[in-house]
Amino acid sequence: MKSKEVLVIGSHGLLGSTLVKLLKEKGYKVSTSDISDEDGIDITKPDSVEKQFSKVKPDFVVNCAAYTNVEACEDPDQYKIAYAVNAEGPKNLAVASINHNVNLIHISTDYVFGDNDKNGYDESYSTFNPLNKYGETKRAGEYNLEKLRGCMEGSYYYNQGPLFYVVRTSALFGEGATNFIAKILQFAKEKEFLEVVTDEVVSPTYVKDLSEGIIYIIENEPKGGIYHYSGEGSCSRNEFAKEILRLSGIDTPVKPTTLDKFNRKAKIPSL
Hints:
By secondary structure, this protein is an alpha/beta fold. The chain has helices at 14-25, 46-56, 76-100, 133-149, 180-190, 207-220, 237-248, and strands spanning 5-9, 29-33, 60-63, 103-109, 152-153, 156-157, 164-169, 172-173, 194-197, 201-202, 205-206, 225-228, 235-236, 254-257. The strands form five sheets. A six-stranded parallel sheet has the order 2-1-3-4-7-12, with helices on both faces. The protein has a two-stranded antiparallel ribbon with strand order 5-6. 39% of the residues are buried.
């Protein structure tokens, strides 16, 4: 059986770089593309997407590309860019995937929900109420894939062929790019104490674990549809910061604060 060819888009980011490394270690044929590359794919442009698909001829495409500056998305001009990347980009990839019969994995986020449900969300959740513009753009990207796949029931799409997957995750951390851990460690060296919120609760997700989950989909090709993948359990950002410093042997105090103390344009899911 021939090895699957995987095209990873957004290959320089936190998730993309880790996924590429693991795929190569497992013997996959991997093509990479990032908007910062001279010949990188621009997912906001259908012609650029079509050119890359025709060149690489992948079996699977994994879309790790996203505009993730939550606060900047509240600015109208930046929102247009975020919408092009997070909503129109997945649609362009989906159209090309159908035309070339390529399976597509699109990475999404828990920011699409917005209801602050203490019990969490399963894959059949359908009452979306994003609290900020970033969440709106990511949900729009999901919706564009759903429209192209036909109807949706439960956690899987009908009308398969090719397979489409939306993988939602939360609070990614790991090596290779700026993330919460890197920021906490940096601030702990610069400040006498840190103030970190107690009312934003997340499920920290190790980027290598998520990459393994994506590779599982590539290897086993389960039914297409919505999949949730995050670290087990949850904690507040304050608890997360304390654990980061404890494991790093840093004794900078971490004081409690709340989201309303910060003058942010974007509303942040608190649970």
